[in-house]
Amino acid sequence: MKMTLRALLGASVSLALAGGVMAETITIATVNNGDMIRMQGYTDDFTAKTGHTVEWVTLEENVLRERVTTDITTKGGQFDIMTIGMYETPIWGKNGWLVPLNDLSADYDAADILPAMAGGLSYDGTLYAAPFYGESSMVMYRTDLMQKAGLTMPEAPTWAFIREAAAKMTDRANDINGICLRGKAGWGEGGAFITAMSNSFGARWFDENWKPTFDSEAWANTVNFFKGMMDESGPAGYATNGFNENLSLFQQGKCGMWIDATVAASFVTNPADSTVADRVGFALAPDNGLGKRSNWLWAWALAIPAGTQKEAAAKQFIEWATSKDYIELVAAKEGWANVPPGARTSLYQNPEYQKVPFAKMTLDSILSADPTQPTVDPVPYVGIQFAAIPEFAGIATDVSQEFSNAYAGQQTVEEALAKAQALATEAMEAAGY
After folding, report:
1. What is the rounded CA–CA span in Å between residue 10 and residue 341?
2. Are residues 111 and 226 in the same domain?
3. Cβ distance 376 to 287 under 8 Å?
4. Less CB within 10 Å around the terminal CB: N or C of the chain?
């Protein structure tokens, strides 16, 4: 008879405690977004099953990336589990900095992880991080404001349509911005958005010889379009807005459209948090007719740094938090719309989840993202909103700061792109490319 994960964990803990093994306290670094905060609220369930307790270090996205990168590269040993993503995992796995997750229990069913997620969180065929949730990006929009503007959102809109709609939906007198987008510096904040957007404009970070291309017409078109649209129809101070700031604006009814992570759909449609929960529609991320949409591919995943003294307890936590049982726990407590999406195939085969209004668009967005061919023209790197090389995070953080300065009017787009080209070229040459 097949044992459930709960039974397996319960049995293993009972045996461990009976054998004199003390329960552990594990320290987990994570990001301050809604799904991770929700997970912290269920930690008592994990403790009840295993006897292990958890200490959380919850950080803003840019700070999290800086802290965990510093800790792993210096062997600091502050954390037993780190929340990382598709950029770090293959690089760190290759370097031997992470514990392989190739011995998870049969009941965990690692084969159920969506192939796009498992592939992005593996190196050389070995899984090094388990996805807590997976995401792409898509358009979330106010159906009432779209109707008021006399427009109909296509399932697969163009950037030209998005800009037109944003202008028509903007109502400054009533504090409604036609569109809210990330302008915040940070390679995974505003940097991720503008990079994914640039793919649909025919831009790329590096050419086939690893030469930066910020001096290209495609990059000028991307950044000028973004800044022009946001100056026309975006919120004041958009240069410092990231995921959480735009989520708050949308939930308060201050955005006509928001293009961002598919995972946000559960938050904007939750009537407990969103004033516009019953007036939200979804569409694929925009394109320009060049064959590439502007959606990314990402997973927030849990990984174990090599050298932890608490590997067994950390693996038990990862099995608990990224399991089918955890999904069912959240569904039972908060409804299917609020479970962590995008990680498991079985979720999208579940008839109850198929009733969730954004489920299909989320899956379609994830499946349409191709990190192996992210751009119109060929590139030597893998990754959609990042290039999967160790140097990228530092370069892209600096580049995104120049872009944010341009959004804020502190320099021109042309000046920002020239600085981006210079610093990226210098860094890549120094790295030996």
Report:
1. 26
2. no
3. no
4. N
Q: What is the CATH number of the domain that holds 259?
A: 3.40.190.10
Does residue 368 belong to any structural domain of this protein? Answer: no
Rounded to an integer, what distance in angstroms lies between the CA atom of residue 36 and that of residue 341?
12
CA distance 186 to 204: 18
Could you tell me if 49 and 160 lie in one domain?
A: no
State the DSSP string of 152-195.
---SS-BHHHHHHHHHHH-BGGGTBEEEE----SSTTTHHHHHH
What is the C-alpha separation between 402 and 339, in angstroms, rounded? 37
Q: Are 286 and 259 in contact (CB under 8 A)?
A: yes
Q: Exposed, middle or buried: residue 6 (CB in 10 Å: 0-12, 13-18, 19+)? A: middle
Report the alpha-carbon distance of residue 204 to residue 215 in Å, rounded: 11
Task: Determine how β-strand 126-127 pairs with β-strand 122-123.
Answer: antiparallel
Query: 180 and 31 in one domain?
Result: no
Closest by Cα among 396, 400, 79 to 206:
396
Q: How confident is the model at residue 22 (pLDDT cuts 50, 70, 90)?
A: confident
The answer on 147 and 54 residing in a single domain is no
Query: pTM score, two decimals?
Result: 0.90
Are 239 and 407 a contacting pair, CB within 8 Å? yes
Residues 384 and 303 in one domain: no
137-142 sheet: strands from edge to edge: 177-180, 255-261, 137-142, 280-284
CB 421 within 8 A of CB 215: yes
Q: Is 412 contained in some domain? A: yes
Strand segments, DSSP code E, in 206-296 are 255-261, 280-284
- Give the model confidence (pLDDT) of 312-362 as tens digits: 999 999 999 999 999 999 999 999 999 999 999 999 999 999 999 999 999
- Summarised one tens digit per residue, pLDDT across range 45-66 is 999 999 999 999 999 999 999 9
Written as one string, the DSSP assignment of 277-316 is TTSEEEEEPPB-SSS-BS---EEEEEE-BTT-S-HHHHHH
Residue whose C-alpha is closest to residue 87's, from 208, 210, 195: 195
pLDDT number for residue 20: 39
- String of DSSP letters for 391-409: THHHHHHHHHHHHHHHHTT
385 and 425 co-located in one domain: yes
Segments forming the whole domain that contains residue 166 = 137-296+376-430
Q: What angle do CA 82, 114, 119 make, to 5 degrees?
A: 65
